[in-house]
Protein 1
Amino acid sequence: MLVPIDFAAEFERLADFWSPHVVARVNDSYVKVAKLQGEFVWHAHADEDELFLVMRGQLVIQLEDGEVVLGPGQSVVVPRGVRHNPMAAEECWVVLVEPVATKHTGDVVTDRTRSIAEQLA
Amino acid sequence: MLVPIDFAAEFERLADFWSPHVVARVNDSYVKVAKLQGEFVWHAHADEDELFLVMRGQLVIQLEDGEVVLGPGQSVVVPRGVRHNPMAAEECWVVLVEPVATKHTGDVVTDRTRSIAEQLA
């Protein structure tokens, strides 16, 4: 029997900002939840598109040619190779859809980098 | 510059039940919106998992060993090969994530079957 995912409950369980947690796998992608606050880090994913869906709060995705501002129920796909930097002035809840291979800080390693094992824990 | 997707606006534009509309591509998957009401058709996707996320209303997914009931903010992944039949007593809005190759009625063709070209239109 299949077990539903309750996104609100998954967000409630998240203790740390910028620490994505995998809630489902669909084909070769993971669906993740993350709480964001503050500024992340400029990075790109060479071979992977990344979908952001805001569930609560407001997310600004800085791009080299401007920025995209997303509120609840709004989404954007950052195409592969596009450098971006997520920012949230206040606490923001986002759902991410990205390939299982995606490193959330892309080609950059910082103290915020979480391994896939950590994201699955 | 990237263009955000506003899910509420996408749902408002949908005129017909059971007629998914593609709103984004992320890697090898499409993100679709669909309005559901009534009962669909039993089917399976041999090689593709399918994610359902309910945005409004209540969705019942009948399975051969029971059923899953989803409300707003709840989601389930129907694994490849699992026969299922979506039902909604009242109007229900769902987001779907599934491979670009997925036929929404799976291995079954009915008068509700919509081609990928129709879903992209």
Protein 2
Amino acid sequence: MPKFEKHIFICTNQRPQENPRGSCNPNGSGELHQLFKSSLAKRGVKATVRANKAGCLDQCEHGPTVVVYPEAVWYGRVSASDVDDIIEQHIIGSQPVERLRIADSCLNSESCPHKPPR
Amino acid sequence: MPKFEKHIFICTNQRPQENPRGSCNPNGSGELHQLFKSSLAKRGVKATVRANKAGCLDQCEHGPTVVVYPEAVWYGRVSASDVDDIIEQHIIGSQPVERLRIADSCLNSESCPHKPPR
């Protein structure tokens, strides 16, 4: 098993509450990252799939954000109650969770309608 | 440009000096991440390539470690003087820098000869 079959990056960036771009980890607890880790461990796939802390993934308007590589599937507005769905459907079942995906038209886009005005 | 063409994750994990697994960011400065960022900015590719802070990537024996997705190319023992080579040869030129790659036989391997004895 030379590489991770899937590598999940969970944004744990914390910003002040008043920042207009929001914060993926508002209370600094890293809870989402911990939930991904424990969900993988529970299913016995920790050796082949890694849940990794990441700094700002720069899709803040859609946070909390998560990206899964190598397939580059992006998720937004991920909450604690979504973790098991992502693990079961996507990581184990290879079917991305469509309801959580960030639209391609929003990714890295200056014209994303969710971005706050400058 | 819906997704990053390349997404570079630089381990910024800091451990105490005496930890046998070592530390990818021993003085906590995050210098390597900053160098990747500025090297991308200098070449005008910041919009399509992201240099991202990452928590522990779990290849600590080869640190400082960096992984480039979506191609899942892993680099080890990356120093400040290697950053421009990775950007020029791999990110711009699409040729991974072979001298820095972590061997597949070492990645996620319990039998990696570089791991300290338990």
Protein 3
Amino acid sequence: MDVAKRMERGQHLLERMLGPEQAEAVRMSWRQISPQFEEYVVEFVAGEVWSRAQLDLRTKSLVTIAAVAALGRNLALDLNIRMALNNGAGREDIVETLLQIAPYAGFPACWEGLAMAQKIFSEADQKT
Amino acid sequence: MDVAKRMERGQHLLERMLGPEQAEAVRMSWRQISPQFEEYVVEFVAGEVWSRAQLDLRTKSLVTIAAVAALGRNLALDLNIRMALNNGAGREDIVETLLQIAPYAGFPACWEGLAMAQKIFSEADQKT
Amino acid sequence: MDVAKRMERGQHLLERMLGPEQAEAVRMSWRQISPQFEEYVVEFVAGEVWSRAQLDLRTKSLVTIAAVAALGRNLALDLNIRMALNNGAGREDIVETLLQIAPYAGFPACWEGLAMAQKIFSEADQKT
Amino acid sequence: MDVAKRMERGQHLLERMLGPEQAEAVRMSWRQISPQFEEYVVEFVAGEVWSRAQLDLRTKSLVTIAAVAALGRNLALDLNIRMALNNGAGREDIVETLLQIAPYAGFPACWEGLAMAQKIFSEADQKT
Amino acid sequence: MDVAKRMERGQHLLERMLGPEQAEAVRMSWRQISPQFEEYVVEFVAGEVWSRAQLDLRTKSLVTIAAVAALGRNLALDLNIRMALNNGAGREDIVETLLQIAPYAGFPACWEGLAMAQKIFSEADQKT
Amino acid sequence: MDVAKRMERGQHLLERMLGPEQAEAVRMSWRQISPQFEEYVVEFVAGEVWSRAQLDLRTKSLVTIAAVAALGRNLALDLNIRMALNNGAGREDIVETLLQIAPYAGFPACWEGLAMAQKIFSEADQKT
């Protein structure tokens, strides 16, 4: 497989997980800060790692949320909560994932994750 | 619900997730370092958080592995890989969870998780 | 002891450590993001862990500030600096705790903790 | 050597790495939150650690950016990106340092670092 | 004050907190890996930060244990548990400090801290 | 460019940075724990990220050491100290990098990094 093909696969997957508009918006924001960063995320992270077949997208979303919430990486947490909702995870799944990691990463990490989830859920409700 | 009931529920769940011998062994090790620590883990972590109904045990195992691998907490990582195998996660699920978090927590965190998983898998093979 | 009793004990302790209004405000914010999160914090974190007798509340506040500042968990840091002031810790105690951890968690973690402490102290001064 | 001499050396180095105005501004902000913190940073961090001769300032800036971006310490990251630009590191050097650590600290840490770098670069462009 | 005086003060404090033999042993181990590291720890960390007057040594030990346990820094955790026992903290104080941070840094961090504390306590018992 | 070419480039770079024997040994260890992990590290981390042209290999080694030492990732720290010595970094450069991050990531992180560096330097001396 060549890199261009991975890039295409990553682009399609991002569009599926974010919707075409949000996918373009986040890619644009990456491109502005560094075209290489955009490339690596689309090609390698989305087009390769996320494209692996063994785990379904919903499970991948939940384990990714667990990791980035534990590490307190807010930009990635925001993006991954949004993607999770398109990957078959319900709001409760996201909340329960954050509650599950509370004893492991600490309640403060859980709290920050829940606060971000709630903000995203509220925004979604107001759009409807 | 009272705390004693939670304790009982946590004890049963730990036995299910670790087998009765390993459950007793890890509880003994906790008791020796601090009886309160054992109580809190059995009652609150196992008997309450792990006993929540929304996510299945396999998913909970995978998100927990993601969080503790990201944080580099080795005692908990070892225990949670062992429990995952009794919670319906195959070896591949564990490996794929660790690969999925590589771009998020870094390849070094993934590497340490995979090395620990391999050690546990090898031990299991030698027992058979 | 049953869980309801712990809950009551946790509620009283939170009111003592935050004042009744702030206690209600933070509990409301937890309830909105997840009623289970509120329950766990009030019952287990406040009603059980904070209610242990061996260390006094002032010492517990300072060690908690040290841990959450080291981890960079800002929501919990803000809350714990406010609680520390009601738990018998003076402003200097909080500042000195953050200076003490500077060589251990790094000056940047200390800096972020001091900046948050100063913001809280200034707000308190303006209320008077 | 006495501490006052180190302090003087640290002050000169900070002025060189930040320009006299920004150096005064950041020192003032430290003084307001804690005079001891200002002293330690100027005397020990700048006047001693940064004043060591083996590595040049550009290399020191890049390794410091790598460490604080990995740890997600935003106040220090902001300051160190600004100092790097006066220490002989070009914008590309900073971007490449952040890309280099992406596989080690994770893409989310890299993303947050790049977003901050871009903000600083934009501000600089608007001043010109 | 000059640096040599701080060094002397730091050396005395280390001897008080570790006993003369252990103080010499740990300083020797630092000297072997880097004489500058030894100097900075003795002069700045012990002779300056630990020598501040506002907080007593027992409280400083407990907040330091909280920070390094939260961060999972095992060499520093081992040293600080040993020093705490000479700084007026009883074994229960150390255990309670680690239990207090369990909900904040997570049970795995608490577990690793308790396991190390138990090892140190056992060694001490066997010497008697 | 296709992935196979990156893989080849990554393989050559690893051999250059580790020597052919150590490169094969570490690749074998990765292959045993997960062939995909080996692939990703050789192809993407070595063949793409490390192969970028802007920063020289010595600088890349030092910033990577800074990041993994800050995060406490020991397997990667060990590997990167070994590679740094083949990438034009002297022992002093490595020690100075670790001293430089002491105020940022904390002295405990620096200590663990220096201890590992010393172990690697000693082994190298004994081979000679």
Protein 4
Amino acid sequence: MDTHLHHDHIESHLQSSDLITDVVIGMSDGLTVPFALAAGLSGAVDSTSLIVIAGLAEIAAGSIAMGLGGYLAGKTEIDHYNSELKREYDEVEKVPEREKAEVKEFFANLGFSEALQHEAVKEMTKDKDKWVDFMMKYELGLDKPDPTRARKSAFNIGISYIIGGIVPLTPYFFVDDTLQALKYSTLITLLCLFIFGYFKSKVTGVNPWWGALRVTLIGAAAAACAFGVARLIESA
Amino acid sequence: MDTHLHHDHIESHLQSSDLITDVVIGMSDGLTVPFALAAGLSGAVDSTSLIVIAGLAEIAAGSIAMGLGGYLAGKTEIDHYNSELKREYDEVEKVPEREKAEVKEFFANLGFSEALQHEAVKEMTKDKDKWVDFMMKYELGLDKPDPTRARKSAFNIGISYIIGGIVPLTPYFFVDDTLQALKYSTLITLLCLFIFGYFKSKVTGVNPWWGALRVTLIGAAAAACAFGVARLIESA
């Protein structure tokens, strides 16, 4: 009962951390890159509507690229798992003694005595499916990937990127002067990055204040760098 | 000797896949997002120099955000590992019977007989360090992260993004007409995405032609979407 609950706990822990990973990936880039792009353009052009166009084009491009990037990463993981699974079945069939030696080595590394190693290998290799499952999980460290994960991941990352990206652009919708809009954009984006960094760090078990500061400084650095680059080229 | 070689093989496999993962992450976004941004702006503005400014600002912002994103992901992994390690040591100290039951359950899941489970738990829990190490690796599925990985990852992803991002911008340096530059940009970027997708798929064991097509279509979709969004806003 207790171990069952414990298992459920781990499962739900892993699932929520998948979603959180996606949101963190999407939103931290979504808040940072369109913000930095808008900041860069604010130093080089006079028209806020141009910055809005560039910003929304970037959000469209970034959310598709990142979402599909997440999708492909998930798909690749599944393909990789299946090709390794096929290879393990082949090896168990063709070179069973070598595969048995690998199982034995696993238990030797756990600190089992010689006698116990033999016993464990005997029980472990009785059932071919269990044997292959064991090799996949504990020799190669591969868990069976969730087949729906790739699609969910694409969606979560894409949406998070769009939500994050709209934040820094908002002032440019309402303010005509680019440098004035940049001031508001910087204010709200750094505030959002700080709050985002705080909760992200809470979830991952890092000191939240330090984590919040770290995320905020990255956003500021990216924006400052983009601003500098755009100014340099514009004045060249 | 054989198992040692086998172990080295796995290690080098993992290391090269870390680097490849970084390059894939950085370059697929680097080729796609600045390309799509440039495509979007080509449909809405007349000046190639403006597109160059926006593109370089995006590359500066994107490479910093993605590189630092990779850095933070690596750092978070290390912090997470250390906090879980501390908790496992605490639990082994405070609730050893529950932890022993979890070890027993692990061996039960492997298909061990009741007698062998007892034997295995006894040997496994003799040494506290080995015990905790076992819990970390096989109950929580956490490997000790490489402490230098975060920095390497940041660098690899950032550089890959810059290299990828320069490709679609190149025509805008040399051609004055934005739509003409977009044609060349589309040609060389889709070609690069195809080649990139081909080799990436070869490495990950996916059918390379299908993988190449998939990556190319994503880039084209992102660019078309950005172009459409920018046109829509510009004409509104």
